[in-house]
Amino acid sequence: SRIQRFSRTLNSSHSQCHLALIDMKDFEPRDVSVEVKDGKVTVLAEHREERNTPVLKTCNYRKFMKEFNLPPGVSDDEVTYSL
Asked: CA-to-CA distance for 39 and 70, rounded, in angstroms?
């Protein structure tokens, strides 16, 4: 699969952090949105590309969605993410 997911738990003496990585190489950052709500993280990406020539019109469309449940005890406002 082109989409690879990795999950790892990092431990320190102060806290425990959960890390999820998603390969989004087929999308531009402007195509990706992340929502954290009601104990879930939703990653959504959509990309549409149209090309016109005098003879042919093509359209390429990609969509990706992944939803994660937050671990017990983690509140929505504790979640951070970056692209």
From this structure: 5
